[in-house]
Amino acid sequence: MKTLKNRGLILLALLAGCLFNIQLFGIAPDDSLVVRWKDINVFYEDNEKCLICHGEAYYTLSDTVAGVSQIRNMFQDYFVNREDYYDGVHKSFSCTDCHSSDFISFPHDVASRLEPRYTCIDCHGYDENYAHLNFEEIEVEYSNSTHAKVENFSCWKCHDPHSYKLIASEVTDVGELVLYDNNMCLSCHANFTEFRLLTDREEINVVSKHEWLPNQVLHFESVRCIECHTQISDSILVAHMVLPKDKAVKNCTECHSTDSRLMSTLYKFESREKRQNGFFNSIILNRSYVIGASRNMYLGYISFLIFFGVLTVIGIHVFFRVIKAKRK
Amino acid sequence: MSKGLYLYPKWIRFWHITNAVLFLILIVTGISLQFSGLDEPFVLVSFKSAVSWHNTAAFILVLNYVLFIIGNQVTGNIKHYRSNSTTYIQDLIRQANYYRRDMFRGEPHPFPVTEESKFNPLQRFSYLLAMYAGMPLLIISGILLFYPGMLPREIFGVSGLLIIDLVHDATGFLLSIFMVIHIYTCTLGSKPTTLFKSMVDGYHHDDH
Ligand code: HEM
User: Fold this and answer.
1) What is the pTM of this model?
2) Fold category of B5-204 in CATH
3) CA A164, CA A31: separation in Å to the nearest integer?
4) Which of A92, A115, B51, B178 has its CA 20 to 30 A from that of B102?
5) ipTM for this model
6) Would you say residue A96 lies in a domain?
7) Rounded mean pLDDT of B149-171?
8) Looking at A53, A87, A115, which one is the last position of a domain?
9) Cβ atoms within 10 A of the Cβ of B40, count?
10) Is the peptide bond before A116 cis (omega within 30 degrees of 0)?
11) Cα separation of A304 and B170, whole Å?
12) Number of domains observed in the structure of chain A
């Protein structure tokens, strides 16, 4: 009887152990992901030396001399999400490609922490592999933008090199592009906790500021903030000269007309073919319909024809009525 | 001259003048929206004011249309829109022939106005089409465009907004053409102004 009871307890313990294991398994990255990441990046194991802390929400700070250790939160700005990293443009990089190898010592020494950081232009500028993206012009535009006036602002505020993805040139669904890009702006402009780290300005309520815009939700889903808040650029794909708020586009016809601004901004990539099936700016039709911009040329001609046809018939009728009246 | 038949009671005259004024506003602002970015004569109103004028006028137009539908039903005016003629098509052709040929020969109106039937076959047909097919289509598509969030993003791979907008533009255009023809045929009374006078005082002044 006793042995049976013991067996029961053992079974229960095994079951609990299994459950516990399953739970642990859920927290750690999926094995298949790790295999994929190792495939993507030959420095995976090296990177883990950093990500063991920087890839987690918590890390352990230990004083080996005093034998004390504490669990601390990882500051958000220093956190790198593995999944995003191995999905981003810099996925094949080793951490020490950009950061000093001195960071390997912990606690990190001040000299390496104060080391100047790279910006986009340091790697991508003046390189013919990236000539089509014209980083030099992006740099000029950025330096003239309102963002450049903000202390501690840098390319990284919008383009985190640890997760950045090429969207504008690769995405086929414009909605996805709009969402990705607008989230970039909203991560500060609709998040006061982030926003106040960079400026003393008062909190902005993006929704009430744009109250004047009819069908606000549809606009926010269909176009990017930068459509109206940047100066159009001919030489780069995505305009970077963010303008002060009073210079933002407020005139509806900038977009709602046949020479729509959207063709040199949001639809720049596809805008090469301008007119298809008689629709002005037909490419917009793949996703949306912009009153005033997506007018159909042929329907326009047909309506003019019908209208003037009717007027002509009326004119002829009037003519015969006048003749008849004169004969009387 | 006797005052003649009383064909257009006050409520019809009120509905009609309101409808006509709103139509003119909607046409001017509608064209300004459609051809935004072009100059006059297409764009008489700036895009922003065109949007608010178009929306406001449309809102009143809908209320006015409800008045028309209820009024027509309650007062029995709807009988003029219905026909139990067994020769509907032939009647239409006869009326068209009158406008095309017979009126120039001095022949009398083929369908004289009576209290039971104030419209000729062409009027009856075009008013029925405009008021009970054109207007509902125009109003429904207009409401959908006013709440674009309700529309499916895509219908068979084409933007839902595009389809509804085409329906709205097309019905708006056809009703405007109806209005042009309508105004012209209203000059075909015994004198060019007779029918307009009827719409002002309610009485039929013609001798047919
Ligand atoms: C400036 C514009 C307009 C003018 C000058 C005008 C003129 C007239 C006149 C003189 C009549 C009376 C003769 C008749 O019964 O045929 C009439 C009736 C009528 N009109 Fe108009 N009209 C205008 C716009 C419109 C519009 C936009 C619509 C509809 C979309 C419309 C629908 C009708 C209808 C349904 C009747 C018959 C009403 C009834 O007695 O039940 N009109 N109009």
Assistant:
1) 0.76
2) Fumarate Reductase Cytochrome B subunit (1.20.950)
3) 24
4) B178
5) 0.91
6) yes
7) 83
8) A115
9) 7
10) no
11) 12
12) 3
